[in-house]
C-alpha cells in the first residue's frame, strides 16, 4: 500500500514537472512571435503614413548638413540669375546666392552681358512664385557689404545655386573664403564647360560672359531642364545631397546621367 502511494506520488510529481517544462518552452516560442507582430504592425503603420502623405521639404525632417535650413519663404521677385527677393516675416529681403555669378542684366554701370538674359529667364522659370528654403554658410557671413542676405536656395528638393552652374547659366564664384559646397560647384562647372552647356557653348559666349549680349535674347528652351543637377560622375553624389532629396521625396525619379 505504501509502495503504491509512493509510486503514484512520484508519477504526479513527474507529470507536473513535464507540464511546467512544456509551458516554459511554449512561452519562449510565443514571445518572439508576439514581439515580431508588434514590430511588423509598427513598420506597417510607418509605411502607411509615408505612402499616403505628401512628403514635405521641412527643416524638421532633414539631417546634417540640412538642419540649418530656414523657411519656407515665398519668392517675391527674381532680380537676376544670382539675386532674388523673398518675403521674410512680412518684409522683402534681397538674397544673394552663394557660390555663383551670372552675367549682368540690371547693373546700370554695365551693358547686358552675354547670356545674362537667359540666366535671368531660367531663374524666373525656376523660382518665381515658389516657396524656397534658405541655407546660410558661416564661412561667408550672414550679409554682404550691400546688406543682402547670403544663402544657398533650395527649391523643389534641388539646390538651385548648383542647378544654375550645372545647366550653364552661371560661373562658380568664390568670394574671399572657400564655402561649404565649393567642391561640388566646381565639379558642376567642369561638367558644363566640358560639355559646352549654356554660356560655355561656342554658339553663345564660349565662356566669355564679360562681352555685351548680342545674339542672345533671353530665350529659354520650353521644356524645363531636369531638376537633378548632376550625373553620377560628379562629386555631389558622395556628399549626401542627392540622398537627402530622395529621402525627402521618394516619388521623385532616380537621378540619371546627363
UniProtKB/TrEMBL annotation:
It holds the Pfam family SNase. SMART domains: SNc. CDD domains: SNc. Its EC number is 3.1.31.1. Residues 69-202 form the TNase-like domain. It comes from the Bacteria. InterPro entries: SNase_OB-fold_sf, Staphylococal_nuclease_OB-fold, Thermonucl_AS. Residues 202-222 are annotated as: Disordered. SUPFAM superfamilies: Staphylococcal nuclease. One of its GO terms (molecular function) is nucleic acid binding. Keywords: Endonuclease, Hydrolase, Nuclease. This is Micrococcal nuclease.
Amino acid at each position: 500500500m505504501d509502495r503504491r502511494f509512493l509510486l503514484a506520488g512520484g508519477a504526479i510529481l513527474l507529470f507536473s514537472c513535464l507540464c511546467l517544462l512544456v509551458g516554459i518552452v511554449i512561452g519562449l516560442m510565443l514571445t518572439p512571435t508576439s514581439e515580431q507582430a508588434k514590430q511588423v504592425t509598427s513598420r506597417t503603420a510607418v509605411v502607411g503614413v509615408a505612402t499616403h502623405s505628401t512628403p514635405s521639404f521641412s527643416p524638421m525632417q532633414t539631417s546634417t548638413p540640412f538642419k540649418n535650413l530656414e523657411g519656407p519663404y515665398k519668392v517675391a521677385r527674381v532680380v537676376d540669375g544670382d539675386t532674388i527677393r523673398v518675403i521674410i516675416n512680412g518684409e522683402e529681403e534681397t538674397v544673394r546666392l552663394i557660390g555663383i555669378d551670372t552675367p549682368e542684366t540690371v547693373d546700370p554701370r554695365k551693358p547686358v552681358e552675354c547670356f545674362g538674359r537667359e540666366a535671368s529667364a531660367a531663374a524666373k522659370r525656376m523660382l518665381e512664385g515658389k516657396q524656397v528654403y534658405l541655407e546660410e554658410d558661416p564661412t561667408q557671413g550672414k550679409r554682404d557689404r550691400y546688406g543682402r542676405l547670403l544663402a544657398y536656395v533650395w527649391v523643389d528638393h534641388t539646390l538651385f545655386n548648383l542647378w544654375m552652374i550645372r545647366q550653364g547659366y552661371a560661373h562658380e564664384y568664390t568670394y574671399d573664403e572657400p564655402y561649404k559646397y565649393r567642391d561640388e560647384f566646381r565639379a558642376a562647372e567642369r561638367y558644363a564647360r566640358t560639355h559646352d552647356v549654356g554660356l560655355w557653348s561656342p554658339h553663345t559666349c564660349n565662356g566669355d560672359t564679360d562681352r555685351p549680349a548680342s545674339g542672345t535674347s533671353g530665350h529659354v528652351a520650353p521644356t524645363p531642364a531636369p531638376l537633378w543637377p548632376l550625373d553620377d560622375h560628379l562629386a555631389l553624389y558622395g556628399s549626401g545631397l542627392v540622398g537627402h532629396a530622395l529621402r525627402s521625396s521618394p516619388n521623385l525619379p532616380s537621378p540619371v546621367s546627363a
